[in-house]
Amino acid sequence: MSKTPVNVKKLMSEAEQKLQAQDLPGAIASYRDVLAVDPENVEALDHLVAVLFAVGQWEEAMPLLETVVRLTPDDVEATYVLGDLYFHFDRIDEARVLFDKVLDMDPDMLDAHLRLADIFLGEDRLKECAEEIDMALAIDPNSILALISRAELLLYQEQMPEVVMTTEEILGLDPENARAHCLLGMAYLAMSNPDEALEYATKAVQLDPDEIDAMITIIQAQLSKSKFEEATATCEVVLARDPDNGLALMSLGMAQATLGEWNKAKETEKHLRTIDAALADNLKELLDYGAGMQEHLN
Asked: How confident is the model over 12-22, as a mean pLDDT?
């Protein structure tokens, strides 16, 4: 027996022992040792990718997963996961190619249809987006993910009654779905119903504190109800998590101006300008109008 296979077997055993002991850094190092000896060891590549995912090292996993897909081109799951990585790193054209390949191998891969729907929505190709969602729902009519995608498309198309109907269908299947509560709140806000918007968006945040869209909906509902101090506090919560959230900054500037905190509002507008010039222009227009009205009253 040659020396290399023995070394690989021993190194793989060491890596698996470390993995079972929850020594993830040690497992990563051991799997890398395997690949230093045998760079095309698919088992080691698969396991190392899984461990890197577990510790959030997505970008480091990408070239390894590319090797897996090259070595095992018929692996539907690996191809989909690589496409999903490309999607999240904004490598959209490469992601599209892989999702198409996945569906050539497995036309009933629901997640691939929904990722293509996401891509088409981002490109404003609404007909193709709707077709992919319909195909996903044909595979599983009760797919929460597919119904969420449909609700988001309807929201984008400003078909608010249909958003309400779809999200209520989702909540019938999954009453604790944070995203559905969020989308329902957003729809009610768009229909000038801030009380309902506040109720559903608040529920969404209770279910998922990281649901930023729901937090923004709460802010906008608070502004609509003239609850400017509460809106300011909510903006500060959002900005503590996401300091460059343009909508939160614009809303904060509006609330500050309404409360007469003009210097704070101007500082907020300056910060917003470094992030989103268009939103900053909108805020400045509102500030200039408010300042003019104040001067006129004085």
From this structure: 89
Question: pLDDT for 115-167, tens place per residue?
Answer: 999 999 999 999 999 999 999 999 999 999 999 999 999 999 999 999 999 99
For the chain, the structural domain boundaries read 1-72, 92-140, 142-225, 241-298
- Close Cβ partners of 73 (under 8 Å, ≥ 6 residues apart): 79
Alpha carbon 298 to its chain centroid, in Å, reads: 47
- Which amino acid, one-letter code, is at 11? L
Distances in whole angstroms, Cα of residue 169 to Cα of each of 48, 194, 279 = 40, 21, 34
Pick the CATH number of 1-72 from 3.30.70.1520, 3.50.50.60, 2.60.120.10, 1.25.40.10: 1.25.40.10
Kindly report the pTM of this predicted structure.
0.85
DSSP 8-state class, residue 113:
H
Was domain 92-140 assigned CATH 1.25.40.10? yes
For residue 273, give the nearest of 258, 284, 262 by alpha carbon: 284
